[in-house]
Design a protein that fits this description.
205 residues, alpha+beta, Nuclear Transport Factor 2, Chain: A, 35% helix, 16% strand
Length: 205
């Protein structure tokens, strides 16, 4: 009789242990699925493709962008001049990349302040149009050179500079002879540091 009672006791204990075990939950094994945003529907019924954050393209550079070509003030000025006249400019960015359109002063005209205000007011397209208009007008103003060597010679013999501060350097440049030029032969240009780049912040010509 005692054997039967013992067996019944052991059987009850086994049932109790099984009942107390935690059931296997797939949540303990697999990570929860990443929620996906539903694709947006366009008015024409097509579905927009939603890119993850890391796959989105960066916007265009608004100010600067000359990078290695303007890491120090002297080379920045030389490369700006080469790019401006379109000589010895292989591998150089466009000359407008050397312009700081947020602070630019041209013969006393506070263009940069005006353009910065337009940006704050979110007049982006109008600002871009005005900047492009000035760039085109200035390119016509400086004229053209027929010989690349004339630009290089002027960068050696016709260039003086003075450091205004740790972030500003002023250059006096005797420009070479240019066809259809509409400005002075002597330029005063202030280069200023913006981040890692040295950009043109003021032009007096």
């Amino acid at each position: 009789m005692s054997n039967i009672a013992t067996r019944l006791t052991l059987a009850c204990m086994a049932v109790t242990l099984v009942a107390c075990q935690k059931p296997i939950d797939t949540a303990d094994v697999l990570p929860p699925p990443t929620p996906q945003a539903a694709p947006a529907k366009q008015s024409d019924g097509k579905t927009d493709v939603i890119l993850p954050m890391h796959a989105k393209k960066k916007g265009p550079i608004i100010v600067g962008g000359c990078k290695e070509a303007c890491e120090d003030p002297k080379n920045a000025f030389r490369n700006f001049t080469r790019a401006l006249f379109g000589v010895n400019n292989e591998g150089l960015p466009e000359w407008k990349s050397f312009i700081d359109s947020t602070t630019l002063i041209h013969n006393g005209d506070q263009l940069g302040t005006h353009w910065a205000d337009m940006w704050v007011m979110k007049r982006f397209d109008e600002r871009a149009a005005e900047v492009d208009e000035w760039l085109a007008a200035y390119l016509r103003r400086v004229g053209t050179v027929s010989e690349a060597q004339a630009v290089e010679d002027a960068l050696v013999s016709g260039l003086q500079f003075s450091r205004i501060s740790s972030t500003e350097v002023e250059f006096v440049y005797l420009a070479p002879h240019r066809a259809a030029a509409n400005n002075s032969g002597e330029w005063k240009i202030r280069m200023g540091r913006r981040g890692l780049e040295w950009l043109v912040q003021a032009i007096y010509d």
